[in-house]
Amino acid sequence: AIDSALESGEIDVNQEPPSDYVDILEKLDLVRSEVATATTLVARTNVANKPYDDKRVRNALQMAVDNNVVLQLGYDGLGTVGENHHVAPIHPEYAELPKKARDIEGAKKLIAEAGAGDFEHELITIEDAWQKNTGDAIAGQLREAGIKVKRTVLPGSTFWNDWTKYPYSMTIWYMRPLGVQVLALAYRTGEAWNETGWSNPDFDKALAEALSIVDPEKRKVPMKTCEELLQSSGILIQPFWRKVYNHHAEKVQGYVQHPMQQLNLGKIWISES
Q1: DSSP 267
Q2: Residue 2: its pLDDT value, please?
Q3: Largest CA distance in the chain
Q4: pLDDT exceeds cutoff 70 at 19
């Protein structure tokens, strides 16, 4: 086990422990390094599949879920609460929007209006522990709102064959330094990685403007429009942003966790003093 190897001095560092391992390593005589990231996991609907072509159904799924609860249950609270628009607070062009609270009654009303009260949603995730746990947490929240959910957990070798085609599934998106980068890959009309199938000309126009602006402060103006359109579309529950950690022996110098998990060995050394 990694904790035993670190404690005995057999190894001096680890790269990134699972979230449920952080507390174990905290009890050892080690130095911890942590950093906020823009890596996340999204529960996205694909609008080419019923009932996800109905905005009321998509909004109801969002409204039924408390993202902070999902963070606590899915990733042991080791992150920052997401806002369902896939732009992180650490992104330079992030624009803050009004906070939204869980609304179970509102969700039930929308589902009923859409005539989807008897529909059973199948939420698909990969079998990786924190991704499975996050899917379970979202499913639990939806069931509390009276929404029927079946959970399907697939091995990675199966999941990634058709990841853009599932009607309702969860996908990990790793950090890009700028908010516009993931939006261009994942939500722009016709993109190969647009797994939601969503297309909105107003979003495309605002994103094109944001991509043309070098100054991040000025870029926040069209980015706010992008965030609002994504959030209101209901196409994704984006519950949290991951923090990532590493632990190392005190004699290891210059070893810090990087938000994109880059490892610069030229700046790391061992102090024998």
Answers
A1: G
A2: 67
A3: 70
A4: no
Contact (CB, 8 A) for 246 and 258: no
Cα separation, 253 vs 246, in Å, equals 13
Cβ contacts of 141-145, under 8 Å, gap ≥ 24: 141/64, 141/65, 141/66, 141/69, 141/70, 141/102, 142/61, 142/64, 142/65, 144/64, 144/104, 145/60, 145/63, 145/64, 145/104, 145/107, 145/108
Number of H helices, E strands in the chain: 10, 9
| Assessment of whether the complete model's pTM goes beyond 0.90 | no
Residue type, 159: F
Strand partners of residue 244: 35
Structure tokens at 263: 């490892």
Does 16 score more than 90 pLDDT?
no
For residue 199, what pLDDT band results from cuts at 50, 70 and 90? very high
